[in-house]
Design a protein that fits this description.
Radius of gyration: 14 Å
Number of strands: 5
Strand content: 15-25%
Helix content: 25-40%
Number of helices: 3
Order of helices and strands: HEEEHEEH
Length: about 130
């Protein structure tokens, strides 16, 4: 079981931003920007493009709702969607608030935020996500 599966199952704590029965979104613990969120399917699939078509479509719709909540909670020009994932064998989407494309440079120094701030960020995004339900 991957670390992300354990997070989605509640076995490892996370800063939850959104969830439903099929997908889970939580803050990246080493964010590029305030609000940097990871979106995962609860079903463990290593490679993004191995996800079946129906699930992939639903995954994108869920990520879109999370991105809208993120943009509402933390206004930005756009929310970037980045699919990487060699470090964790569980498909995941990075949603990153951005003002410029430079905000999505994974080589730049990442933020280190205190737990209280991470909790507040996640709560703001979650509240905006709940408004869409």
């Amino acid at each position: 079981m991957s670390i992300f599966s354990k997070i989605a199952a509640g076995e490892i704590p996370s800063y939850k931003c959104a969830e439903d029965e099929r997908f889970y979104a939580f803050l990246d613990i080493s964010p590029l920007a305030v609000g940097h969120t990871l979106v995962i399917p609860r079903e463990e699939v290593d490679y993004f493009f191995d996800i079946d078509d129906d699930t992939l479509a639903a995954y994108q719709v869920f990520a879109k709702k999370v991105a809208r909540a993120l943009k509402s909670a933390y206004p930005c020009r756009k929310v970037a969607q980045v699919v990487l994932g060699l470090e964790v064998p569980h498909a995941h989407i990075h949603l990153i608030p951005m003002q410029t494309e430079a905000d999505v440079d994974f080589r730049k120094e990442h933020l280190s935020l205190p737990a209280e701030e991470m909790q507040e960020i996640a709560a703001r995004i979650y509240a905006e996500f709940q408004k869409q339900a």
